[in-house]
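Dear support,

I submitted the protein below through the web form. The confirmation email said the job was done, but the results page showed an empty box. After a refresh the structure appeared. I'm attaching both so you can tell me whether what I see now is the final result or a partial one.
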Amino acid sequence: MQAPVSTGSQARVLRGLSVFAPFLLLASPPASAQDFDADGLPDHQEIIFGTDESSPDGDLDGYSDAEELARGTDPESATSSPSGAVHGVATSARSDSGTLSLVSLLYAPVGSSNLDFATFMLVGGVEVEVTPANLPPGTIVRFLPTADPSSLLVYIELLLPEWLLTANKTVSFKTEVYDGGPAPLAMAGTYAVDVSGVAVAVNNPPSGGGGESGSSSTYMPLPKVSELPAGYQSDEICTVDLVPVGTSGSAIVYQVVSAQCEEYPDALCMPSDCAAEVGSTLELMEF
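What the results page shows now:
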């Protein structure tokens, strides 16, 4: 069994999981995990997050892109900087040569002594809870620098075989952050959907997933551009309208009632695959 991988540089404890520095790398990161600016976020993941992969602090406000994502501010705007001693979390995903990465960034302010988290995944109607005590083999854990060295920023990447997404159409996950109490102090989640064999993330999901009620969702491809099939059009994005049609266990079932490529900068869309989503159903965890 392969143990969790840590590239942390400081000794920290996440209830039930001790990570010491330096820690022996037990698995080689994939090529897509290259990190040009050495900020702890793989280049491919930064493209999906929309941050600057050439600089750890894209807006030069003194807070790293990763810290701003976890604390809910805009890493590309110097007028949007973190404030207040509150916990935070951000989530995302990416696809790389048959592997689906589920990424969480956890932030705990100065004074936090009992940081804990739980990630809930919904795949094929089955909900799985992942905690520091039962991290799957191959999990990547990194401790990233913060503007205040006394605070804590943790990068966690769970790896799933992408055939699970292909076979089940959707993979939902959410991560909750705790600090010694029974109630979560922060929560975020991400939906991944299979569209004709390509993993996409659902941006601005239905209101049950944190999106705005009555607004359309968009599908963002999660593979690198070099791994996408021919036919994708640049500066367009697949825009879909989802309506709830029922429930299945802990999931809300949505139906795609319209889907079309629309103009959107720095995005990609396959017109035929997007249009073919009409009538499909998605089982999405409620956040």
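Response: this is the final, complete result; the empty box was a page-load delay. Residues 5 and 27 are 6 Å apart (CA to CA).
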